[in-house]
Every structure is written in C-alpha cells, then in structure tokens.
Amino acid sequence: IKREEAQAGVPLSIMAILRTPNGDTSVMQTSATLLDEAFPDQGFVQKPYTLPAGFALDSVLSMPGGDHVFEATNADGQLKDFVFDGTRFNIADALNDISRPRAIGCSKGDGRPELLLQYVGGCRAMNCGITKVYKQNASHTLLGDQIFENDSLWGSTFARLDPDGKQEIAGVIDSAYQAYEYNGGSYSLLGSMVNTSPVEYFNTHNVYYEPRSAHADLRGNGTGTENLITLDADADLVIYERDRSSATGFRVVYVDSNYGASDGSFLTTGDFDGDGRPDIAYAFHPPIAEDTAGDVPHFLWTVKILRNLGGMAFETLMWDHFDD
Fold this sequence. Notes:
5-stranded antiparallel β-sheet, 324 residues, 4-stranded antiparallel β-sheet, 23 strands
C-alpha cells in the first residue's frame, strides 16, 4: 500500500488469501489503520553523510580520528577508506583495487588491524575467486601492506578457529571452506571444512557459491576458540569446529538442513534471547524449480533463528516467512 493512497486514521480492509501446495485456499479478512507518523517522509532524502554507490563493508573501524568505513566504489574502480568527522564522510585513503571488502580482523595477532578483500573477476569457475589482505602500517590506517593473496580462495572472514590467540583467514573453494594461519613468518593451510550436508532434489548445488559465513564461540568453554558457521547454496546451515585428529583438521558438529536456496540471503549471530549464548539467524528462499504459489517462488523468504542451548544443541526460536 502506498502511503499517498491511504489516509491516516481511516481503517483499511485487508483480504489475505492463503494457498497450500495441494491447491486448497483459505480467505481471511481483517482491517488495519495507518498512523500519521508511520511514514513521515516520502521516498529517500540524500544526507550529507551518504556514501557513493558501491559495495561497503558493514563493519566499522573505530580510530582516534573517527570511524572508518571501507567501500569498493563502482564509478572509478577504487577501494576507498572513508572517515566520518561527525558531519560527513571524507576520503582518507584510496587504492586501485576493485576487490570487495569483506571483513576486518587480525591474522598476525599483533593488534594492528587487517582488511580482507574478495574479488571474483578473472576466475574460471563460478565458485572461486581471489582473496587479498591489507594491513595497517605507519602511513595507512588499513590500506597499507598487502600481506596475503590467494588466487583460488573466495575470501569470507577472519575467525579464531585455533586456540593460539590469532585469527585465521577463512574462505571457500567449491564445496569446502579452508582456513589459513600465520605462523613462522608465512601463511599456510590450517585445514579444510568439507560440506557433508544432504543434497536436495530440486537444488543439487551442495556447494558454496558465495562465501556466506559467521563465527562465534558457540560452546562458550572459555578457550576463545570460535566455530565457523556457514550457509551453502541449497540453504543448509553447516557448523564446523577445529579437530586436530581429523584428516582435514576440522569436523562438522551441526547441520540444519533446509529445502531451498541461499543466493541473496544473510547469516549472522547474536544473543537474541538474552541468555548470554550466541544464537544464529539466517534466511533462505525456495529453489526456482519449485512453484506452488503460482508466482515467482524465490521472492518468498524463510527466516530462522536458532536458540543456542549449549553443548552444540539448538532449537528453533523463530521461523517466519515474508515476501521480498
């Protein structure tokens, strides 16, 4: 309903038609009233602190001179460091690199921040890419020394997967995540996380097309070691844990299998029930092969929140649907 088509304080009649996969329908009628303050402005107003068009990292690096935001700008193909002065964003640094910023972390464990970048151009396959990491130095807040590059890894995040105090660099190659650690002056493969989730009938792509991951200490055992939480292409949530006895160095500790697809979705963690444990929230949509509603099925989203019960056990805290 467009705001200009409804008057504040006037009840609106709503008719909801529910259709099941077998064709049965049910009609529900109700009403609702829009408050005058519900939509105070029409459209979007550009503010002086608006960033230019591009791919911006959703994490902020707080420094004494202000908060820094990193963005790959589309117009000039640069990676830019913007600092907010309280009124607007100003360019503090720039780099001729069109890679997308994915995460801020510290793989060397020296306290100086690092920026993980992901680039998919020039990759021969759909599910690989180029990963780079830049590090702060005396002249640059974050776009300083390039300390890591892998031309087959699709970079995702930093995560503390090993109890050594440092973060590892995590990324995707086909159906497996890989973790690289800094040790003895160089980076080496710590291990691989192989996706063992079931293959769906209508979506057989049991791989990671886009590295969509989160990390958290789900066990809360005080070691500071985190789990890597991933969402694969057929919408299965797969959680990995470091296991030195495993042939790959990691093992799957939890799978939440779904019937769907994950392109365009999100995955995050947070304490949603206030019990002190990190919970998991993510979304997915049906595969395009399924069309039970008579319209475009991938516009129908499912959102799930898994409550962390401890001991790598979870229960569904919320399960809801909405249209895109």
